[in-house]
Amino acid sequence: GTHTIVQVGDLMHAGEAPVRPRERLPEGKLTLPFALLPWPNQIDATAGAAPVILYAADDVSVADKRLMLAIDALHTRLFPTAQTVFQLTPALGGRAVNFAEDGSLPTEGYRITFEDQITVTSSATEGRRYGLIALAQILHGAYADPDYKFPATGTIDDAPRYDWRGCHLDVSRHFWSHDEVLRVVDMLAWQKLNKFHWHLTDDEGWRAEILAYPELTQAGATRGADVPAMLPQLGDGSETKHGFYTQDQMRAVVAHAGDLGIEVMPEIEMPGHSACVLAALPQLVDPDEPANSYYPVQGYFNNALNPAVPETFTVLETVFDELATIFPSKYIHIGGDEVASNAWMTSPLALALMEKEGLKGTFELQSWFLRKIKETLTARGKIMVGWNEIAHGGGVPPEGTLLMAWENPQVGIELASQGYDVVMTPGQAYYLDMVQSDDWLENGAGWAGPVTPEQSYTYEAEGDFPPELRGQMRGVQACIWCEHFTTRQWFNDLVFPRLSAVAEAAWTQTENKDWQRFARQVRLHPEL
Ligand code: TNX
């Protein structure tokens, strides 16, 4: 039978036709009749009459044939009813694709020349893949919408603006199945994003299987009464609350992403946002700390791992060791955000440690903890990544640390001036859980918003950076926080088209951005 998910927003709209956020987008306009997203940095092409199927020229290597099939399969997964874009055998009336090398192109850059045949030139696999994605997008658009064409002649000469083109997904507040995560990775690849930041733990749930501590996913991945208490307006979203990924499933995500040029960075939140860890492993709680002695913004009492409990480090080191066998990335994100400003101040163990080490207050203790974590990671050959609060209370050595500036854009500049490398993820532009309008019926968060798609699109993360600090601005990232995403419809409504806006900000130079052209383009975007 059919299963209907009833949403709180729909109930509120009973009797009215709900206006989905994407229906508020302007119509936009075509500047050139080619469907490409992110828009390339240089395009000079004439439109052909009709779309044509693309096939591998005779002398295409096995590796390049595989790449063509992989991008064709990506297209088919994203648009299951659409026509094939690439095939290996010649097609009547089709056009052959060739590949060429040019060592002077950047790793992720590509050039496409449209003549009788089509040539994709690159210096590396990354660029070749992006050239094929561009061709697949153009062809897909030409099949899907008569306003879009396939080029007859001309060139696209393209390379990304930033090296870090990220998207984060919170799978803790609501759980996303293994298959859904694979699909999210596909959607990122289609938009030439290259970093998947997998937010695997938070107060509400621990989602990564750790063999040494099965309690983490036994107790920590099954949510209790916390959702109604914390977010009473949302219903309990129970169909998406429980679950975790096995290590093999995580390896499969890493492999899938790797095939599409995406690096997967896991995040394990510490010391804050750890209510589920402390519930699952009660031996990590100072037994003499009174319950309910501090209350952070997330609404979970006493939710920070205690730096003065030695087993805290044993557990975390074990977690890092197991994760290292799953995630080859040199980056590991350890959170570091939103510890309550009075955390640990009633823990006798913490007070004794502070006395011994000469530390004053929560943030100096946090900083002591994070410096030890950084040493642990460095010893394992990993680069520490964290949210901007890592810099509080003295911070950690900036060399080899990468921070994500989320609270506001100015924070990113301050961190860079302190010597940190930064990725810009300001809530005011790039948090995709923010509502998109001032319609009070809309689901979503509000602390930084509303953030309209146009605001996400036109925001320039580099805008206020003094020139001497620009080198430390490594790129941009969208963050998909999921407290509010009780249904998949809400995911689609809030994530699109703003995810594409961030993808274009990450790839396309300022002078090539155009809101009206973008607003027209995003209609072809796949959904979850
Ligand atoms: C702030 S961003 C948080 C998250 C929330 C988000 C909601 C950050 C480092 N902390 O825990 O999910 O706001 O917008």
The CATH architecture classification of the domain at 42-158 is: 2-Layer Sandwich
The percent range for helix content is: 25-40%
What coarse outline follows from CA principal-axis ratios? elongated
**Compute the gyration radius: what is it?**
24 Å
CATH superfamily of the domain at 42-158: Chitobiase/beta-hexosaminidase domain 2-like
Helix/strand/pairing category: alpha/beta
Compute the number of helices. Answer: 17
Q: Count the strands?
A: 17
What compounds sit in this structure?
Answer: ligand TNX
Strand order of the largest sheet: 8-9-12-13-14-15-16-17
Average per-residue pLDDT, rounded, comes to 92
Largest sheet: 8 strands, parallel, barrel
End-to-end separation: 22 Å
Task: Write down the CATH topology of the domain at 42-158.
Answer: Chitobiase, domain 2
CATH class of the domain at 42-158: Alpha Beta
Flag low-confidence runs: 1-14, 225-239
Strand content: 15-25%
Structure description:
With 528 residues, this protein is of the alpha/beta class. It has a domain at 42-158: Chitobiase, domain 2 (2-Layer Sandwich), CATH 3.30.379. It is built from 17 helices and 17 strands. The chain has helices at residues 8-12, 62-78, 125-144, 178-190, 215-218, 226-230, 247-259, 275-280, 310-324, 348-357, 361-379, 409-417, 427-430, 453-458, 488-495, 498-507, 515-521, and strands at 43-47, 54-56, 86-87, 95-101, 110-114, 118-122, 151-158, 164-170, 195-199, 201-202, 205-206, 263-270, 331-335, 383-387, 401-405, 421-424, 473-480. The strands form 3 sheets. Strands 8-9-12-13-14-15-16-17 form an 8-stranded parallel beta barrel, surrounded by 4 helices. A 7-stranded mixed sheet has the order 1-7-5-6-4-2-3, with helices on one face. Strands 10-11 form a two-stranded antiparallel sheet. β2, α2 and β3 form a beta-alpha-beta unit. α2 (62-78) crosses α4 (178-190). The chain is elongated and about 80 Å long. Residues 1-14 and 225-239 have low confidence and may be disordered. The structure holds ligand TNX. Ligand TNX binds at residues 337-338, 387, 406, 427, 431, 433, 445, 481, 483.
